Amino acid sequence: MKYLVLFLILLTSFGSVAQHPEKRERIKALKVAFITERLQLTETEAQKFWPIYNAFDESNHDYRKDFYERRKTTDVTTLSEQDAKVMLNNIIKSENERHQLKEKFMNDLLKILPAKKIIQLKIAEDEFNRKMFEQFKKRREGGKPDDDRP
User: Fold this and answer.
1) 8 A C-beta contact, residue 112 and residue 45
2) What is the pLDDT of residues 92-105, one digit of tens each?
3) How many angstroms from the chain centroid is the CA of residue 53?
4) What's the angle, vertex CA 17, arms to CA 33 and CA 50, rounded to 5?
5) Are 36 and 3 in contact (CB under 8 A)?
6) Contact 34/128 with Cβ under 8 angstroms?
7) What is the DSSP string of 33-48?
């Protein structure tokens, strides 16, 4: 329950989603509270879970950021066919690496959590992301966020 209160306080101070590290940290804190509450992690589980989760999340973020940076600096309309093939191969390689990262993450979690909680984690992440996106959309449209918060 204390996580829910912390979560609601943090959510009310949530601004627009951006690349700023302090905003990313605030969102991360919201996500931690949300996941902890949804999974009902024991203290022992939480102590083992969060280092694994944080390492995975950081690596996954690095992959997404790298892909975004490469895509942002590439004008696809002027690419030669050969350059496009190289870029496509790099995308495939990156996606395979992300898949291997996710597979390792799941296997590491299976050592400390029951499979049911891992499935609940995926559901909680999806729900958190969906609700954060809805809040972002409402703020961007100039409206007030709903009370139906993650």
Assistant:
1) yes
2) 999 999 999 999 99
3) 10
4) 30
5) yes
6) yes
7) HHHHHHHT--HHHHHH
